[in-house]
Amino acid sequence: MAFSLALSATLQAEPSWQTDFKKAQEQAKTDKKLLLVDFTGSDWCGWCIRLNREVFSKPEFQEYANKNLVLLEIDFPRPGGDVAKAQTNSVKKQNEQLAMQYQVQGYPTVIVLNGEGRKVGELGYMEGGPSAFIAQLEKLRKG
Description:
Structural class: alpha/beta
Radius of gyration: 15 Å
Strand order of the largest sheet: 1-3-2-4-5
Strand content: 15-25%
Low-confidence stretches: 1-12
Shape: globular
Order of helices and strands: HEHEHHEHEEH
Mean pLDDT: 90
Distance between the termini: 45 Å
């Protein structure tokens, strides 16, 4: 029983990654949080996989994200790859438009927007795990 309670608390603590830009932007504005937009090739990009494994999946980052961020994944999975990564045509179109709008040249690219939708910064993979990544986000958050 204690294990299931701990598991339940862990699952609730993990922030969810959204895939709808407009909904995520609206939530960021309403909650007065930054919108972290992760442009990724989640099933083929080595640096993207490392960023997820070394930063995004860690409890330290997840706790920070719950308090300060709305998370949005803009994914470009391998065509014909994992069926679980299948996307609707509207999501594919949205992702392509956002990549062009923010001039994404490679993956991972992390764009940080304020609640009004204005770009406040851009990040990518960096050494140092969640603490280094959070330190950069804090600089952006504080302006």
